[in-house]
């Protein structure tokens, strides 16, 4: 069987290369089914054991459940992969039925279910070639009784399963039965010969030349030693198999695939520049080739990188590893991680911060004296939102997620520090000419007003499926506006005229973290299980910080004055610095916004603000001091 079509088919099964079966015909060693065997129906169980025994009586073969066929010139051609629901497959029941009803026992038979996603897969029943001394394999005969009392001998005839005819079986049995003094073994021999006559023997294959394989590390140049050291550390040829090709460059490093003795795909050796080699099991290599871009493994690995090995010690990755650190990809630092039990490993970024900004920073609604915006951008592979337009249920869920977040309470706390009567903001779907509702977007807002009706704090949020970069993206914004002129003034030096109120920089940390924690839940109305989807690009959240315009004082006919950051923030917690920060806006970005906990988010925001302050001239700015004052008032 090693050189037969069945061996090739088994290689495809080992590699889970289901698409390779499309376009080939069923044969004496391959039979496919589009639906599962109905094991609760006697006809279904009869069909299963008949098919298994027929392969056992022939040269062995594969039964694959999860493919569709079409008729073509009297043959059945496999024309599509049709995975079957996992809930309908009980492999233990399949094994027990075959074991109980096929006589004699079929040696080395395997029944396996290979998932293709969370709910579906392909059932593979592999019947190896059986010893001639074990044949024939018999099953309960097709006599229509609930408890059969007869037996039959099924065989493969080309691409079909048929029963050995009664006449042929009787004639050959009688030959041995009526032989005087003939032992009962002659009867069995006669049946063996009948089966052999019904199934033509394949033409003998010409002898194959002794296989030659590339050497480990061949083509790696000066990095060959990393390959050979990693190969030896993982057990060498006995454990890993042999190389199938010389070393090639893929993505940020070099790789060399291996294969087992029977030709099935084995581990892959990888080497990154200035690193030791890594041994990647075939299962994890498949996930690595898919997670960055399912259409092209080369692009996938270029995006997410290769396993990160130490500088001097080979890395041997376990097949059941749930996390694999990666480096060198265009997506930036990240890892393969199992995000759902039993699921494949997906790429996830390491959380990091920078000051790259790619989105507009225009306000949604009224411009205020201090304006904060958070923008979440997440893109998934080949994901599309089903409805043509956002239903009202999704818009209500958008509103409810914000009402349940800490943003409403934070808005109240901002105002409650300065006034005695504070209303609780109510989130509602935005209305009016300044609303941003559309077929693909939802807009909700909330507001706290002073007793005289003037706005103190406003919040707006827009949730949108699809954006300028990808239709598989979700874009969300949460904006917070604060009118500082409506808050009590801070006394100036020497009891002079009070100056305008300025928000302590430590309160800015809290505000940005609150926006962050509100916005990362917003994709849920569009894709409830979004955490389990593979990314098409690193997700990120951008924070914009604006100083708006100050309204003229009462009775003053002057026009509104543009404020700068020093007018709206109290920078005392940053230490000595410039008397005036002339900037009117700034921004920062967090890549991988879903993973950090609350304390880590505070640290990342405070670190970023400290770096910005250093650039503005606050040379004594210290993140530890900033966090220490986070819950108090500035000195």
UniProtKB/TrEMBL annotation:
MF-aspect GO terms: ATP binding
Occurrences of domain Schlafen AlbA-2 (ranges): 26-133
InterPro entries: Schlafen_AlbA_2_dom, Schlafen_AlbA_2_dom_sf
Key words, A-Z: ATP-binding, Nucleotide-binding
Origin superkingdom: Bacteria
Protein's name in the database: ATP-binding protein
